[in-house]
Amino acid sequence: MTTAGDIMHRGAQWIPAHETLDRAAQLMRELNVGALPISDENERLCGILTDRDIVVGCVAMGHDPAKVTAGEMAQGTPRWIESSADVSEVLVEMKDHQIRRLPVIENKRLVGMISEADLAQHLTEDQIASWAESVYARTTRRGTPPPRRAPSRRGCATARAAGVRASRCAGSSGTGPDR
Q: Could you tell me the end-to-end alpha-carbon distance of the chain, in angstroms, rounded to an integer?
């Protein structure tokens, strides 16, 4: 049985809720990540902060990232999974909540993070395609899927995972990782 602990990226770090967004951005740069779990004063998960959250939810709104805290950006119920959970449980959690990153907890402590890249490295093509289809599924106001468009070069890996032919990806040979 493949577990969350087997496929996660080890070494994930918290950003304390009281830290400012500029410090969070610096930590993301240092760790080369696009998301950080947010912890409360008891080191319990209270949210996840993404680089996009900082840009769209703070900077684009005219706020100063040096004055807004990570905790102020935490919204909704945080999702996580135990390191001993089967990979099928990971996929269900991510599909059901349409999330792309999932903190992994062991003995009430953060031990890792599962991202799209981790899934791509450890799952079968069918598992990845099913996951991508459900997480990236959108509907129009009428409840029907929007018309399909050719993916951008940046979205080629996801497009391949969802079953879109690599030839539709601009500049992609379909043979290697898209960077």
A: 31
